[in-house]
Amino acid sequence: MKLVLLGTGGYYANDLRHTACYMLPEIGVVLDAGSAMFRVAKYLATERLDIFLSHAHLDHVQGLTQLLGVLPESVQRQSVVYGAKEKLEAIRTHLFASELFPVPPAFRLEPLPELVPLACGGTLRHFPLSHPGGSIGYRLDWPECSFAYVTDTMARADAPYIEHIRGVNLLVHEANFGDGAEEIATLTGHSCLSDVARVAVAAEVGLLVIVHVDPSFSDDAQIDIAAAQKIFPNTLLGTDQMEIEF
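-> structure tokens emitted (246 positions)
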């Protein structure tokens, strides 16, 4: 299975990164719909998309407004956006208010089921995360591989969500802040880099990919990925349009 990191930045787009969006092209699954959503057209390989939202903060949903000009109309009509019911209502009421976006979306907004069957014999499950306003993490499993996506939460080695991601081949996890920014991370409901590495150790994952990084960084050299690698050696810094086989 291949994962494409379409957008790996946090809060706002900068010259290096767009905001959160991750795609499994061969099965038409997209996780979050940030400003990188326009890139799905480049990788589109299915007749529909299933888009799963972690929450409704703008850096994770603003790309839904791009689909009118990005996807063929036939794909738009068949595509579904899943999320928590109250978050979908906020998107429908506010993001697609006629004063902001005068064309109603062709895709459907549907509450997230407990279990979603995926192509190639896979399944998708979700679990709660700690974040202001609430957030959702995802785990996707197939007979031969597994993947988890955790964003907008406070990482710690005893976090309840660890049991939901245990043993996955690939963990894509936010680390909006570097070490030493614990106070602002707690205030905003985000993670510091070394704490995420400790989660990877505790969850016994195969590969950790760091995303949703601080957009105030103008250079990846400002991200001390080596600090995470000292704790969990199999750690990579995610970059836009990176492709990962797992």
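The chain has one domain: 2-245.
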